[in-house]
Amino acid sequence: MVVTLSKVDLNLTAIKSLIPVRDKDAYKNLFGHVLIIGGNHAMGGATQMATMATVNSGAGLTTIATDSANLPAIHTVLPEAMIMDWTDVSAIQQMIEKVEVLLVGPGFGMDNLDLWQLIKTTIASSKHSLRIILDADALNLLAADLAEEDKTIQELLSPDNQHEIILTPHQGEWRRLSAGKVPADDQARVQNWVDQAGAILILKGSSTEIYVPNELVIYRNPGGNPGMATGGMGDTLAGMIAGLAGQLNKTADAVKLAVFLHSYIGDQLYEDHYVVLPSQISKRIPYTMKEISKKEI
């Protein structure tokens, strides 16, 4: 049977309705606690950029588990975030059981296998529901697991279907995740892969596409520009998804909002910047969310 997929372009009108409205008596515990695990001794900046995006997207609380070499810099740059040494196994396990959103991957490195195994074991056995974003090196480590084990992503990470999983690959990471068997431009086969994986897929490219399990709609983001082709841009998007995932009822809505805002802000900056820096995008998130929410559309 041939499955027909419809395509919907993300636009300002649809996105405006997704921006959460905060009650006058709102407090931080209503807006999600995010744990970000990443940043080895050489790539602490990746975790800083992801965290900056999470905080500026409105997460109620943000905690970073990272290499101890990064702790002083993060204290200086991001006083809003809490930090912990990722060698403290017990603390990480306890924090995973405490938070609502988990982001793994920015600057994680491919040689941190013991920690990766700990994360997988903890979330797979947890009865606590999480929204889990896997980005960067976490995607490559997951791809290696899928190649070695005869298990699905859900069986590896969420055997009781207790978690929602979001994957954020660029084209190279997608080839590894799909074992080179599913071309990125074959949308029907990508949707079938997503249905079997049971995970939301953000397939990054010049026109990023969002696939949701068991939906017949592909959400396409037409925004973005060549000025955004710089290191840390994906870390920033992952952080935005994490920050918004704790605030919206539907995970797919948080993904759509983050993807649109990321490029929308980038396009505004590109009007008078030759290069758009990830940190510039993060700083403009709160302003842009307020601006869109007040727009007459």
TrEMBL record:
GO aspect biological process, one term: metabolite repair
GO terms of molecular function: ADP-dependent NAD(P)H-hydrate dehydratase activity; ATP binding; kinase activity; NAD(P)HX epimerase activity
Short name of one Pfam family: Carb_kinase
Lyase keyword on record: yes
Gene3D superfamilies: 3.40.1190.20
Parts forming coiled coils: none
Domain YjeF C-terminal: 11-292
Positions that bind (6S)-NADPHX: A46, G107, H170, D235
The protein's Enzyme Commission number: 4.2.1.136
Cofactor entry: Mg(2+)
Enzyme class: lyase
Reactions listed under catalytic activity: (6S)-NADPHX + ADP = AMP + phosphate + NADPH + H(+); (6S)-NADHX + ADP = AMP + phosphate + NADH + H(+)
UniProt keyword terms in alphabetical order: ATP-binding, Kinase, Lyase, NAD, NADP, Nucleotide-binding, Transferase
Amino acids binding AMP: K204, G205, S206, S207, T208, G234
Record family assignment: Belongs to the NnrD/CARKD family.
NCBIfam families linked: yjeF_cterm
Quaternary data: Homotetramer.
Biological role: Catalyzes the dehydration of the S-form of NAD(P)HX at the expense of ADP, which is converted to AMP. Together with NAD(P)HX epimerase, which catalyzes the epimerization of the S- and R-forms, the enzyme allows the repair of both epimers of NAD(P)HX, a damaged form of NAD(P)H that is a result of enzymatic or heat-dependent hydration.
Protein name per the record: ADP-dependent (S)-NAD(P)H-hydrate dehydratase
Annotated source species: Aerococcus viridans
